Amino acid sequence: MKRAYRFLLRPTVRQERALLEMLRDHCSLYNGALQERRDAYRHSSRTSVRYGDQSAQLREIRAFDPERQGRWSFSSQQATLRRLDRAFQAFFRRVKAGGAPGYPRFKGVGHFDTVTFPKDGDGCRWDSTPHDAQTRLRLQGVGHVRVHRHRPVRGRVKTVGIKREGRRWYVILACDEVPAEPLPPTGSRVGIDLGTVHFLTDSDGRHVANPNLLDEVAGELAAAQRHLATFPKCTRRRTKKHRAAARKVARLHTKIRRRRLDHHHKQALALVRKHDVIGHERLNTAGMTQAPAPKPDPDRDGAFLANGAAAKAGLNRSILDAGWGQFLRILADKAASAGRRVIPVDARNTPPGFAGGTPTRTCPTAIGGCGHVAKENRVTQAKFECVNCGLVANADHVGALNVLHRAGLVLCDGA
After folding, report:
1. What is each CA distance from 161 to 19, 119, 125, 239, 257, in whole angstroms?
2. What is the tally of structural domains in the chain?
3. Partners of 344 in the beta sheet?
4. Angle 136-138-142 (CA atoms, 0-180°, nearest 5)?
5. pLDDT digits (tens, 9 = 90+) for 92-151
6. Which of 46, 76, 332, 354 has the fewest other C-beta atoms within 10 Å?
7. Which residues neighbour 187 within 8 Å (Cβ) at sequence distance 6 or greater?
8. Same domain, 215 and 332
9. For the whole model, what pTM was predicted?
10. 83 near 30, Cβ under 8 Å?
11. Are strands 341-345 and 277-281 parallel, antiparallel or unpaired?
C-alpha cells in the first residue's frame, strides 16, 4: 500500500535562504513556461506547446542562467513543468465538461510553496537509517537539512516534496510497498452519520461534538482581515506592516487547519480501533456547498427574488468547517492500513430489499420501526417522528442506523 509521511524541517539560516531561492526560481520557471504557452497560442496560429517541448528546453535554460536555474535539480524542474501541464489538462477537461474553465494563472512568489523531487536520489536523498536521531535530508543547492522525524518511515521512498507553510518547512515523503499493520478483529460493525450540530453520530447512539473551530477564532480572524484590508491592493512594494498583517491572517488559518486535521485523525483512529466494518453515507460536499442559483424577478428588469442565499451561505460555512471530505479520506486510509473495511452507501439509490430515501427520513427497522419513507418524518433538525408508526428518535441516530443497515446489505452482496 501507499502512504505519505510529513516531517518538520529545521534548516539553518543559510539553508532557509537557499530554500526560499529554490522556491523563487521554480516559481519563475513555472511563470515563464505559462507565458510561453499563452504567447504561442495567441500569436502563432493557436499553436499548442506541450510538456515535452518545454522539457526539451531545460538544458538551454540552465546553461543560459546557471546562477538561478542551473543550480537546482533537473528532475525537480521537470516536475514543475509537469505541474503546469496538469493545470492545463484540468483546464481543458473543465471546458469540455461545461464547468467553470479556471485558466491557469501566474503564481506569486508568496503563493508558490511546493517543490517536488520525482525520485529519491535524484537531486535529493533521504537518510534511511532506521534509528538515527539526527535524520537529515540532502537537497541539491541547499545542503543537508536536519529533519524532525517523529516516527519511522516504512516502505520505499518514491518521491520527495518540500513545502513551506508560513515560516515552517516540511518534507513530504510518498512511499509505496508500505506493509499493512492489521489490528485484531473486534466483530463490531457501525454506521455513522455526519452533521454540523454533531460532528458525527454512530449507530450506537454516541454523539461526537462538532468543535466549530472557525467560530472559536471568528472574531480574531475578522479583525485581522479588516486590518489587512486597510492596506491598498495596488501597492507594488509591500511594507513591513503589510507583511506582518498578512502573516497574522495566514497564522490563524493555519491554526484552524491543524486543529481540524488533529480532530479528524483522532476520531478516525477511534473508529478504526473499535470496529471491523464502518459504513457512512457517500457525500458530494462540492455539490452540497454550491450557492443557490439567482431567481430573476419577472416583474422588474434587473431585479432578483429572494433565493435563500444568506441562509445557505451559513450552512455552507458550517459544512466546510466540519471538513467531511478530509475526514472520510483519513478514515479510508487508516482503515486500509489496519485491515478494516469502510463502506460508503448511496442514499439516492435503493439497495435490494430495502426502501429508498435519505437515511434521516426512513423509519429504522433496527429499533422497531416500520421502514416508512417520508419527508414529514424529519420534524426538525434533531427530531425524527414517523408519520406511519409514530416512532420517535434522534434524527442523526436514525440516519446512522439506516446507514449501518445499508452497509450490511452491501457487505452481504459482496460476500
Report:
1. 12, 10, 11, 31, 20
2. 3
3. 280
4. 115
5. 999 998 888 899 999 988 889 999 999 999 999 997 665 555 689 999 999 999 999 988
6. 46
7. 276
8. yes
9. 0.86
10. yes
11. parallel
Q: Are 319 and 288 in contact (CB under 8 A)?
A: yes
Q: At what angle do helices 218-229 and 240-274 cross, to 10 degrees?
A: 150
Assess whether 210 and 305 both reside in one domain. yes
Q: Coil, strand or helix: which one is 143?
A: strand
**Taking residues 153-178, what's their average pLDDT?**
93
User: Do both 283 and 391 map to the same domain?
Assistant: no
Please state, in angstroms and rounded to a whole number, the distance separating the CA atoms of residues 175 and 251.
29
Residues 304-325 as b/e (b if ≥16 CB within 10 A, e otherwise) read eeeeeeeeeeeebebbebbbbe
Give Cα 356 distance to the centre of its chain: 31
Question: Are 13 and 130 found together in one domain?
Answer: yes
Do 178 and 155 touch, CB atoms closer than 8 A? Answer: yes
Domain that holds residue 365: 346-414
AA letter at 244: A
Contacts of 112 (CB under 8 A, 6+ apart): 23, 24, 26, 27, 30
User: What interhelical angle do 324-338 and 240-274 show, nearest 10?
Assistant: 50
What whole-number percentage of the chain has pLDDT above 70?
93
- Do residue 333 and residue 352 come from a single domain? no
